[in-house]
Amino acid sequence: MTSEAAVARLVERLETEGVPYMFTGALSANLYGVPRATSDADLVVAFEDFDVVAFARGLGPDFVLDRQTMIEGFTGTTRHVVHFVPKQFDIELFHLGNDPHDRQRFSRRRRQRLPECDREAWVATAEDVLIQKLRWGRRKDLDDIVNLLTVSGDMLDWEYVGTWTREHGTGALLADLRAEADGAGPAPSA
Length: 190
Known about the structure:
Elements: H1 3-16, E1 21-24, H2 25-32, E2 40-45, H3 52-57, E3 63-65, E4 70-71, E5 78-84, E6 89-95, H4 100-107, E7 110-114, E8 119-123, H5 126-136, H6 139-152, H7 158-168, H8 171-180
Parallel strand pairs: 2-6
Antiparallel strand pairs: 1-2, 3-5, 4-5, 5-6, 7-8
Helix pairs in contact: 2-5, 2-6, 5-6, 5-7
């Protein structure tokens, strides 16, 4: 089984069990920018009363749940990592928390075809991918933003982006990245 098929299996299981989810990270950024390879899949999941251990066990023997629960720094939510052992591929499950942007981006998610999984899935919007990647601020995230701006910058809801970049204090970083992307899209209102 490929890592893509492993992600598709996990999505099928989430949907069968009626667990709301949303792809974030590189797999969602690939929809709106220049696709890049990734060694993991990131999903926000509305767990509530959900047994993550039983869920991971039900995926099959090639999937191993990391027993160490981690905390995501910006949203303050917990994260579980499911390792797909044959391909050394990680699937990170972030709990939907109480962070205002986390909750709003989850409510705005869209059903789209995810080429890596060869299926439809729930994904973050382009605007919310950009906003979250600004918060993370790692070099690969900033590169994803430049690619997203270059490909999709003219189609973004810049008023929405401006609201959250002001809230998070990431407006100056976005301005720098827009310049790097040759000024893609109109500037968000100050």
